[in-house]
Amino acid sequence: MGRPPVPVFASRLAGLAVLDPAGERVGRLADLVAAPGLPGAPVLGVVVRVRRRPIFVSAGRLEALDDHGARLSSARVSLRRFERRPGEVLVLGELLDRVGTLSPAGERVRVNDVGVARTPDGSGWSLVSADVVPAGARLRRDHRVVDWDEISGLGTTAPDAMARAAALAQMRPAEVASTLLGLDEPDAVELLAALDDERAADVLEELPEDLQARMLRRLGRERAGHLLDAMSPDDAADLLGEISDLERADLLAAMEPEEAAPVRRLLAYRPDTAGGLMNPEPVVLPPNATVAEALARLRRRELPPSLAAQVYVVRPPTETPTGPLLGTAHFQRLLREPPSSLAASCVDPNAPDPLHPDAPVMVVAEHLAAENLLAAPVCDGTGRLLGAVSVDDVLDTMLPKGWRSARDTAMAEEDE
């Protein structure tokens, strides 16, 4: 059995750098957001100050949190201003100096600092300990560290919806979606609203498109914009394609401009074409990137397996639409090369031609099947990479409408 993770105390994190996977500074850590009233006292995320603007980064994107600061698993963050929700507590701003009761003696203590560590399964972060002093002590010399669950009465409570959302935290998004389908729609919306933006977006993507649109309306314009920001651009475009032009324009305006831009590009294509199906954010690298850099990009947790099968080497710029596509380097080939080699040297010389964005879905399906591909590049007439279309997106389009609901009904009947 491994040793329990060593906690880092929250006060040591204040003002430290928050870095992206490449080591570039995103901002400085301003606070931690927790739900101490929920089982396990989960850390929901961190508040990062970016150019004087406080933004929220969910705990799922925290690759590391230690005395050196925070490192993110993805460079993509929303710059939407942080707004606290019911049941959430700022660790530095609100938990420090609170007075509670220490079990089992009933001693009154004041919280001097809070220890944070990874959960045992490595899936998240939680409050695990506290540095406390006697409540009436004028000096803070008589302090000691206790387990977090030994303290009670700090005045932190969890609304019912948040508690129910925490119970679903370890379930896969598809399983949470199945749970929501079994609830009355108002209850399902309340539960979805209690999830953090990224988790809620993952769950929303697993629901039938017509239900997605109805739930967005019930959540309200501002929260709907948050969820669309957190969704992958292709899924957000699919959802917005189900609603009226007026509603679509309103929700696009509610999104952050940099998140809305790729969605607008996708909406310009018919939904049953390569352009309408593609993800505009595949793994793209410049010609001078190394194999080590390519593999590091492919290891990102949030990357769908179909897009993690290859990288696309392009001339600058590397944001879609990119410069000319030089070729595709597959994951297995990258594994066989020295880390210092250039990813461009691993490009497949026999790769098929990229898809045109106007290619109909049947042509895309035949292309993927004939070439045994999980995903394929989509380029415009000048050879610029626009995105990549994956086999799961094609299947989702070709399966009968409402197949998700039918599958969930069948699974529920089997369980009975």
List keywords for this structure.
single chain; 416 residues; alpha+beta; SH3 type barrels; MgtE N-terminal fold; 4 domains; 13-stranded mixed β-sheet; 3-stranded mixed β-sheet; 18 strands; 34% helix; globular
Give your account of this protein's structure.
This protein has 416 residues and is of the alpha+beta class. The protein has helices at residues 10-13, 91-95, 160-167, 173-181, 185-194, 197-204, 209-219, 221-230, 233-240, 245-254, 257-267, 274-277, 291-298, 331-335, 361-371, 391-398, 403-415; strands at 8-9, 17-19, 25-34, 42-50, 53-58, 62-66, 69-72, 89-90, 99-102, 107-118, 125-134, 144-147, 151-152, 284-285, 310-314, 325-330, 375-379, 385-390. The strands form 3 sheets. Strands 1, 2, 3, 4, 5, 6, 7, 8, 9, 10, 11, 12 and 13 form a 13-stranded mixed β-sheet that branches. A hairpin with a 2-residue loop joins strand 6 (62-66) and strand 7 (69-72). Helix 3 (160-167) packs across helix 5 (185-194), helix 6 crosses helix 8 (221-230) and helix 15 crosses helix 16. The longest helix is centred in the C-terminal third of the chain and has 13 residues, at 403-415.
